[in-house]
Amino acid sequence: MIIASKRNYSTNLSIAFMALMLASCSVFKATQSSHETFTNPLLPRGADPWNIYKDGYYYYTQTMGNRIEIWKTKNISELNTAPHKTVWTPPPGTAWSKNLWAPEIHFIDNKWYVYFAADNGRNVNHRLYVIENSSKDPLEGEWTFKGKISDSTDRWAIDGSVFEYKKQWYMTWAGWEAHKNGSQDIYIAKMSNPWTIDGKRFRISAPTFDWEKYGDLIADSASDNPAHVDVNEGPEILKHKDKLFLVYSASACWTDYYGLGMLTFTGKGDNLLDSASWVKSPASVFKQSSLNSVYAPGHNSFFKSPNGKEDWILYHANRAPNMGCGGNRSPRAQKFTWKKDGTPDFGEPVKEGVPIRAPQ
Q1: How far is residue 153's CA from residue 173's CA, in Å, rounded to a whole number?
Q2: Running DSSP on this structure, what letter comes out for residue 229?
């Protein structure tokens, strides 16, 4: 009887141990799975998403309207629980106190810079500005206002982005050719330092195709609105091997037709300032998907996975039609690939709730 009891005890203990191990494995696999996949959107709300990966962390920012806010996370798929803080708030009563749009955070010459558009409450006065931080961590230290960035024309400007090409820094943005709204075009200029444009601006894209020209409005003199606006905005540079692309948002953000267009640099004379050196794709490269309930996908940015082997697109979109370009937009991310001719294949916007493997 005693021997039998010991055997039963031993057997029961083994079974209990195995059950505990299986349960632990299940928990581990569930936890592992939750880290390995994510679903869009990354945050409930947020427009004009941008992030950068540095020293093991993603630093993310988006339009907040009245301030600059930065998120910090090791895994972009966990943005919703990531620590974040307001790093800079403009003083009241200035030309840059209101309507802070499309911030981008860059690390240049061992300092952090955030580029953004702002005005004094009237859209006609939107211009580009930059703040600087010499701290190793952009959520720490002090952000200082470096001032307005403009060429000599000092025209309306939004959606500023900077990039380096063959040891020369450039800024690209959306602007008006004159002082009157009606068409938003893409401009580019050289930079002499992170806060100064060097020389003239050059227009390299204007809305020409029908899919770039959805933009009817209710004319309103109080808000400077015309009856219609053709839109090219949100320019973002994408590099791949020996190719250079500029991906931009086309048609007005208040329409469901808001989507992405693309310019390809031909390499002619290495002159990025010459519009003839850029060829525009005749069709949108990323657009709404009624099948997946993703509308007005646009104002994108690009980033690499932590291992540097994956290419990802970050963008905002609406979950239903006719939601406009207000607070209903949310940030989303998905991996993209490359076609045999070396051009990007962004695919179709992924439906909300569909598991996506996190950047590796």
Answers
A1: 14
A2: -
List CB contacts of 242: < 8 A, sequence separation 6 or more.
none
Q: Which residues pair with 162 in a beta bridge?
A: 171
Structure-block tokens of residue 276: 């003839």
* Lateral strand order in the sheet of 144-149: 98-108, 111-119, 127-133, 144-149
Contact in structure between 195 and 130 (CB atoms under 8 Å): yes
Contact 235, 256 (CB under 8 A): no
Closest to 261 measured CA to CA, from 251, 271, 252:
251
Q: Distance between CA 330 and CA 279 in Å, rounded?
A: 31
Task: Please give the distance of CA 120 from its chain centroid, rounded to a whole number.
Answer: 24
| Encoded tokens for 70 | 């930065």
8-state DSSP, 67: S
Name residues of the chain where pLDDT drops below 70: 1-35, 221-222
User: If we measure between CA atoms, which residue out of 104, 127, 118, 276 comes closest to residue 203?
Assistant: 276
Predicted confidence at residue 7, as pLDDT, reads 39
- Backbone φ and ψ for 145, nearest 5 degrees, come out as -80, 120
Structure tokens at 161: 């982005």
Between the alpha carbon of residue 11 and those of residues 4, 14, 20, 25, 359, the distances in Å are 10, 5, 14, 21, 44
Q: Which residues are catalytic?
A: 48, 233
Q: Quick check: helix, strand or coil at residue 53?
A: strand
Phi-psi region of 13 (alpha: psi -120 to 50; beta: other; left: phi over 0): alpha
Give every CB contact of residue 221 below 8 A, 6+ residues apart in sequence.
Answer: none
Q: Tens digits of per-residue pLDDT, 280-314?
A: 999 999 999 999 999 999 999 999 999 999 999 99
- Whether the model clears a pTM of 0.85, i.e. scores above it, the answer is yes
Burial class (CB in 10 A: 0-12, 13-18, 19+), 332: buried
> 230-240 and 183-193: which strand pairing?
parallel
Contact between 185 and 232 (Cβ < 8 Å): yes
- What is the DSSP code string of 269-322? GG-TT-GGGEEE-SS-SB--BTTTTBEEEEEEEEEE-TTS--EEEEEEEESSTT
